[in-house]
Write a structure and sequence with these properties.
about 500 residues; aldehyde dehydrogenase (NAD+) activity; Aldehyde Dehydrogenase, Chain A, domain 2; 23 strands; alpha/beta; single chain; binds nicotinamide-adenine-dinucleotide; globular; seven-stranded mixed beta sheet
């Protein structure tokens, strides 16, 4: 069966109308074989604005639906996702090229965030605050915000939307989603699954959750609309640089989840066997196409020769190939441009004095599919392409001798998403996690930089954009806070002892 037929079979099973992915102008492809899987009709700027208007009306009804009822709808969404897990996971593998366990893992992440959001729907707490005035009470409430516009990247085609949507819905908002133009079929599938939950719930307003198929221009409609209260945008720092000032200019709110250039430090006391396995997954998993992929490693001189040759060997032996037909651990890059970027970065690294191990195209017999052998580059110092995110499986390694200098080098890049340290020395790990340590939104000990759980807040600093999604109190980004002071006395004392007797 061709992948196009396999995708159509899944979409039909999940209830997606064939007209949604045939006869249109947006071609979708599977990076697994390079074959075309669909031709989707695209939204126009007018239809995008109409969708936003409907979402605004839906918000007005949804914001007064009690939180626990909103949670019930997300609970049903989680049930539908459980039922659809195998199909949706396979579609993620077809469209993003992920190995089966990662495709399924991404759907599991959707289920996890639904569970989290259901509990949250009864815990949207504000504080009661001591007031300086007698006979007064002060408190804060968290209210729904409005229409949430979600713009997402190809590499987590379903999970990122669900992180945003599950929280946005329990927080009382409506959602309009512009998925990546490189992964539109999974978006149609997600939309159908959520619509089934909404139908079972029964009493949800029309247009509560919508999807807009298209490119940057359609995303821009969300960015520029004054009716979109929050733009949650996941993608490259290049995209964030365009989106953020536009949203700021209209005083809208942004959650930015942008690029990463994630580093790690391997200390002399590290468990090297565990380090090797953690780095191998962090750096080669998802063919290096995670925002949290391990891209830089600082290895202490005392253990360099015990770790690096073993890592190079692991890179040489890792299986690269069609993730749907073989048990390969490394699947394809998303497209030719991604492969070309990898080749260019490796050439630049050589010019900068690096020694390249691996890289190059792996032939799977599919002319339009781009599989690359993961590469390790031993660098004389942190310079050249090591300072930037290349969205491909390249791991740069630099030798260090002074721990504090290694932390400084670790932080000396523009992105600030994820980081890790490998050590069994308490002083080193605590320093790395301290205010003087890693400057990233995520800092790990003895695990790699990728593979976050939904319970923690997810996001990063600096050019990663500063946003937080998923767990902890990230829900507050999807609500507005109101501070209320209530006078239940017969007097009118003014704050700070101000007198105003008339
Ligand atoms: P991309 O920036 O090319 O596209 C992301 C999304 O933004 C797409 O939906 C695209 O259509 C839209 N877009 C692009 N320009 C726009 C504009 N001017 N206005 C409105 N929308 C616009 O990114 P990509 O190649 O799909 O994904 C890879 C990048 O995403 C990497 O840099 C990766 O690190 C990052 N990423 C970050 C996170 C995170 O949580 N920090 C998660 C996943 C991916």
């Amino acid at each position: 069966m061709t992948l196009s037929n396999a995708a159509a079979e899944i979409l039909s099973k999940l209830g997606v109308d064939e007209a949604a992915y045939t006869g249109g102008t947006l071609a979708s492809y599977s990076p697994v074989t390079g074959e075309q899987t669909g031709a989707l009709p695209e939204a126009t700027i007018d239809s995008a604005n109409a969708a936003i208007a409907t979402a605004k009306q839906a918000f007005k009804a949804w914001r007064v639906t009690p939180g626990p009822q909103r949670g019930e709808m997300v609970r049903l969404f989680g049930e539908e996702l459980r039922a659809a897990k195998q199909d949706l996971g396979r579609l993620v593998s077809i469209e993003a090229g992920k190995i089966p366990s990662e495709g399924l893992g991404e759907v599991q992440e959707m289920i996890d965030i639904c569970d989290f959001a259901v509990g949250l729907s009864r815990q949207l707490y504000g504080l009661t605050i001591a007031t300086e005035r007698p006979g007064h009470r002060m408190m804060e409430q968290w209210h729904p915000l409005g229409v949430v516009g979600v713009i997402s990247a190809f590499n987590f085609p379903v999970a990122v939307w669900s992180w945003n949507t599950a929280l946005a819905l329990v927080c009382g908002n409506s959602v309009v989603w512009k998925p990546s133009e490189k992964s539109p079929l999974t978006a149609l599938a997600c939309d159908a699954i959520l619509k089934r939950a909404i139908a079972r719930f029964g009493d949800a307003p029309e247009g509560l959750a919508q999807v807009l198929i298209g490119g940057a221009d359609v995303g821009n409609a969300l960015v520029e609309s004054p009716d979109v209260a929050l733009v949650s945008a996941t993608g490259s720092t290049r995209m964030g640089r365009i989106v953020a000032p536009k949203v700021a200019a209209r005083f809208g709110r942004c959650i930015l989840e942008l690029g990463g250039n994630n580093g790690g430090i391997v200390c002399p006391s590290a468990d090297l066997d565990m380090t090797l396995r953690a780095v191998a997954f962090g750096a080669m998993g998802t063919a290096g196409q995670r925002c949290t992929t391990q891209r830089r490693l600082f290895v202490h001189a005392d253990v360099y020769d015990d770790l690096v040759p073993g890592l190079i060997k692991a890179y040489e032996s890792v299986s690269v190939g069609n993730p749907l037909e073989t048990d390969s651990l490394v699947g394809p890059l998303i497209d030719k441009a991604a492969f070309d970027n990898m080749e260019k970065a490796l050439a630049d690294a050589k010019t900068a004095g690096g020694t390249v191990h691996g890289g190059g195209r792996v032939d799977t017999g599919a002319e339009n599919a781009y599989y690359a052998r993961p590469a390790i580059v031993e660098m004389p110092s942190q310079c050249g392409p090591m300072l930037e995110e290349t969205f491909a499986p390249i791991l740069y390694i630099v030798k260090y001798t002074d721990f504090e200098e290694a932390i400084e080098a670790h932080n000396a890049v523009a992105a600030g998403l994820s980081s890790s340290i490998f050590t069994t020395d308490l002083r080193e790990s605590e320093l790395f996690l301290s205010a003087a340590g890693s400057d990233c939104g995520i800092a790990n000990v003895n695990i790699g930089t990728s593979g976050a759980e939904i319970g923690g807040a997810f996001g990063g600093e600096k050019e990663t954009g500063g946003g937080r999604e998923s767990g902890s109190d990230a829900w507050k980004g999807y609500m507005r806070r109101a501070t209320n002071t209530i006078n239940y006395s017969r007097e009118l004392p003014l704050a700070q002892g101000v007198k105003f007797d008339i």
